[in-house]
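sorry for the late reply, my laptop died twice this morning and i had to redo everyting from scratch. anyway the thing you sent over, i finally got around to it. pasting the sequence first so we're on the same page, its 108 residues, then the predicted structure underneath. double check i copied it right bc i was rushing
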Amino acid sequence: MPLYNKLVRDYIPQIIEESGKKYRIKHLSEEEYTEELKKKLIEEMQEYLDAKDHESAIEELADVLELIHALAKVHHVTIEKVEERRDLKNQNRGGFKDKVFLIDVEDH
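ok and here's the structure:
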């Protein structure tokens, strides 16, 4: 029996059951949930980095975005508040559309 020990999407147990397989789950405390969301974000970011084509990259970005939504809730803010913060940072410091790569800064 494969051992997973990781956070999965809500419908995964139902999907497993419909395939005729048995499974074991547990429900996490808030602290455990936050830690598992962080681990899952790293996992999904690595899958994005490993994506070999645009379609796979989009699939992994969708997973990353889902985790960002969940993490916003953990921090008791709406995704709109996160977006407001992103927009403010964009206004004050810019985004990444100009493809600026900083090489060095002279130290006085």
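The chain has a mean pLDDT of 97.
thats about all i looked at so far, will dig more tmrw
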